[in-house]
Design brief:
The complex is a heterodimer. Chain A is mostly helical. Chain A is 71% helix and 1% strand. In chain A, a hairpin with a 5-residue loop joins strand 1 and strand 2. Chain B is 76% helix and 2% strand. Classes of the chains: A mainly alpha, B mainly alpha. Chain A: Its main location: membrane. Chain A: The chain crosses the membrane at residues 43-65, 125-149, 161-179, 185-203, 234-254, 290-309.
């Protein structure tokens, strides 16, 4: 699933898929056409809808919990059977009008509330990590590609070094060794620290070719400063690459956060996180499958949605580029 | 060629040195004092000082790191005089929990991890390339779309979710497979295969999906090349065109990423081994995280980094052997 460097490389080489519809075969031209091409794509719409649901769920978590009547940290001993080792009472892990998604075995915490609050953690960490990675990747990639020479050499070496690292193991090492008051911030920093080179490398390559183009030369000839050229001439031309790369990076970070929390070095209990919920469901999977199925399904669908969405955006961007 | 080799080896040595430095700083400088952790609850300042002296933590950083490095190559001794404990090379220190040498702990568990890793690698390589080829041949048709859906699913499913689902379905509900245990191959090859089947599948699924897409894209791109058209125009049989002209360039990039992915497997094995309870290096690391056993985590980290760096090196060398163009371009 996540964190393989090769995944993004494979993306870079993927071939286009011809569509039967003659109208969509014509490359979209304007923003409105792009939007229309996007809306006609049922998979992309479905994925966006699911992501929107998760985002709304995360935003409205306190409200939803108010509606369902149970907080994420609230124990409910009445919902579990203490004679059976704390197994939830009722079908499907205690699903019912009271607990919509059932309860955790043992202490009877409401799974719906924990899923809703877990969505907050997943989305916050994944989106912040994506934002930080993009900033780092774009800045370093631009600087390396534009200035070249020694600056490029230093940045490229650092990138090679970071990419040669077994990122997951090092994230675990860093997270398990460092004491942190604010785990979530540390997670964002650590994920971004190992993530930026994959974007920076591509930005660097594109900057190097863009630098040779006539419009940059003419800007230079008319006396524009380096900063003006970078931000006004080069950066706008990189926007589609950056959008595609960042969309493709989000599912990786959602998975990484969940994986790290699963291994016990991510978000600290009692703050709920999907990965952590799945980890604590491992001893119960045989007797209470609903306990891992709920967070597992939410997590899988979120990663899948971002992956499909990134894939589609990439294809639309590519067909848009092909015309110019 | 020799200059290239020497350059690569030097580069590898530098990266490994930096990895060691990085790891050491994380575990012995940035983390909370290890001596306090070993000491436990009933601790006196004198006891902490004694432990620090035994571990060599009272030395300046440069000396500490040097002792650590020489320990990796030539072994080292903890403590002084009669109490000294000899730690043979490659010395990774002693576990805080069990007081066993970390090197031994890792070596004991390596066979299980190797079995899981090699099996998974074989599986994803075969499945990925086969599915990718099929997809490329049937481009745009049902088989291609079906495989595309499968690869998206395979790329997205977190391996612990897949592991739990498979276990629930195949072991608990249907009873088709045994609960995975590390059965030695020599004892019962059939059981060995059945027991490792699920861990292999889970560990390989993500990579198999990526390889499928990569193979498909590469083959489709190669088939559009001019030289393939020329070969066809010359009247070569389709089979010959595929074997001689299309497959080789299409599959070369697979070698590169295969080496890197295989070397990086330890990270994935961490989760897979933990979920299935297989006693390999990955589970050792995961257990050490919960017990806060820093020397063991550090040992596994170094091993993983070593594998990745060496793996990259081997891939580079293989690549020069397979693709002559790289040799010319490597003069930089």
């Amino acid at each position: 699933m996540t964190f393989t460097p090769t995944e993004l490389e494979a993306e870079g080489a993927a071939g286009g898929e011809p569509t039967g519809d003659p109208a969509s075969a014509r490359p979209p031209r304007s923003g409105r056409r792009l939007a229309r091409a996007f809306l006609r794509d049922r998979a992309a719409v479905a994925c966006s809808a699911y992501i929107l649901v998760v985002v709304l769920m995360a935003l409205a978590a306190p409200l939803l919990v108010e509606l369902s009547g149970h907080g994420p940290l609230e124990f409910d001993q009445a919902a579990v059977d203490s004679d059976l080792g704390g197994l939830p009472i009722g079908w499907g892990g205690g699903i019912g009008a009271d607990h919509w998604f059932g309860v955790e075995p043992g202490n009877g915490r409401d799974i719906f509330a924990r899923i809703v609050y877990g969505a907050r953690v997943s989305m916050t960490i994944a989106l912040l990590a994506t934002a930080l990675t993009s900033v780092l990747g774009v800045v370093f990639g631009l600087v390396a590609g534009y200035f070249g020479g020694r600056v490029d050499m230093v940045i490229s070496r650092v990138m090679e070094f970071l990419m040669a690292f077994p990122a997951l193991i090092f994230m675990i090492a860093v997270l398990s060794a460092l004491p942190a008051e604010n785990r979530q911030a540390l997670l964002v920093v650590v994920i971004s620290f190992f993530g930026w080179p994959y974007l920076a490398r591509i930005v660097r390559g594109q900057t190097m070719t863009l630098k040779q183009r006539e419009f940059v030369e003419s800007a230079k000839a008319s006396g524009a400063s380096s900063a003006q050229i970078i931000f006004k001439e080069i950066l706008p031309n990189l926007s589609s690459t950056i959008i595609v790369m960042t969309t493709l990076a989000v599912p990786g970070y959602v998975g990484t956060e969940a994986g790290l929390s699963f291994l016990g070095v991510g978000v600290v209990p009692p703050t709920p996180s999907w990965g952590q919920m799945i980890a604590s469901s491992v001893p119960w999977y045989a007797v209470d499958p609903a306990y891992f199925l709920f967070p597992g399904a939410f997590l899988f669908l979120l990663v899948l949605s971002f992956t499909v969405l990134g894939d589609r955006i990439k294809k639309i961007a590519e067909s848009g580029e092909a015309r110019s | 060629m020799i200059r290239f080799l020497v350059n690569r080896l030097l580069g590898m040595a530098v990266v490994l040195l930096l990895v060691c430095l990085f790891t050491y700083v994380i575990f012995f400088v940035l983390s909370p004092d290890p001596a306090v952790q070993i000491c436990g609850k009933n601790c006196t300042p004198e006891a902490i000082d004694r432990i620090r002296a035994n571990l060599g933590l009272d030395e300046p950083f440069r000396t500490q790191f040097w002792t650590f490095l020489t320990g990796l190559f030539a072994g080292r001794a903890y403590g002084t005089g009669a109490n000294a404990i000899e730690c043979a090379a490659p010395c990774l220190g002693y576990s805080f929990q069990t007081s066993q040498p970390v090197t031994d702990m890792i070596l004991q568990r390596l066979p299980v991890s190797a079995t899981v890793a090699v099996g998974a690698a074989v599986l994803w390589l075969l499945a990925g390339v086969a599915a990718g080829l099929l997809s490329a041949v049937k481009e745009g048709r049902f088989a291609d779309r079906f495989i595309a859906g499968l690869t998206l699913t395979g790329m997205s499913v977190p391996n612990y979710v897949l592991a739990l689902s498979l276990q629930f379905l195949l072991v608990v509900t249907l009873g088709w497979l045994p609960f995975p245990q590390a059965v030695p191959f020599a004892e019962d090859p059939g059981q060995w295969f059945l027991n490792f089947l699920m861990p292999w599948t889970v560990l390989s699924i993500g990579a198999a999906a990526v390889y499928t897409r990569l193979t498909r894209a590469n083959v489709i791109e190669t088939l559009q090349e001019n030289y393939v058209r020329t070969a066809r125009a010359k009247g070569l049989s389709p089979g010959l065109v595929w074997r001689r002209h299309a497959l080789r360039p299409a599959l070369t990039p697979i070698v590169t990423i295969f080496g890197m992915d295989f070397a990086g497997l330890l990270g994935g094995a961490l989760i897979t081994e933990t979920v299935f309870g297989l006693n390999g290096v990955g589970k050792l690391a995961a257990d050490s995280i919960t017990k806060n056993d820093q020397p063991v985590i550090m040992g596994v980290t170094l091993l993983a980094a070593f594998l990745v760096v060496v793996g990259n090196m081997v891939v580079d060398l293989l690549y020069t052997a397979i693709d002559p163009r790289v040799r010319v371009g490597s003069a930089t």
